[in-house]
Amino acid sequence: MEPATPPPAPAATSLGTGVASYYGRRFHGRRTANGERFNMNEMTAAHRTLPFGSRVRVTNTSNGQSVIVRINDRGPFIRGREIDVSRAAAEEIGMIRRGHSNVELELLDS
User: Fold this and answer.
1) To bridge 60 with a disulfide, which of 5, 39, 67, 93 should be the other Cys (CB 3.0-4.6 Å)?
2) pLDDT 10s digits, 66-106
3) What share of the chain is helix, strand, coil (3-state, %, to 5)?
4) Phi, psi angles (nearest 5°) of residue 88
């Protein structure tokens, strides 16, 4: 029996680079722009224009760590920031200490 072939990685469209920040405890349990409750332990994010449900790969350019998040909120509303990720996503890419990081964003095909 041959080993199973892993499914192909989803195709990605580069959205460029920018600054990511994160939000956590203060917003935990509050409603997001799409109506669901924000859970800081899930892999979610806020973006100003991407459709809700979009999946985005966020890669910290300083350490190469990446995470896939689902867009469920609007923001960030701070000039110069491209995306706000949940605390769990921020932990995955090593940006908790600084609170923000330069990132590369890629929109993944569903």
Assistant:
1) 93
2) 999 999 999 999 999 999 999 999 999 999 999 999 999 99
3) 10, 40, 50
4) -60, -45
Q: Which amino acid makes up residue 28?
A: H
Q: Which residues make Cβ contacts (< 8 Å) with residue 68, sequence separation at least 6?
A: 43, 55, 56, 57, 58, 108
Domain segments of the chain as ranges: 12-108
CATH class of the domain defined by 12-108: mainly beta
- The model's pTM: 0.88
Containing H/E element for 92?
helix 87-92
- The Cα 18–Cα 82 span in angstroms is 6
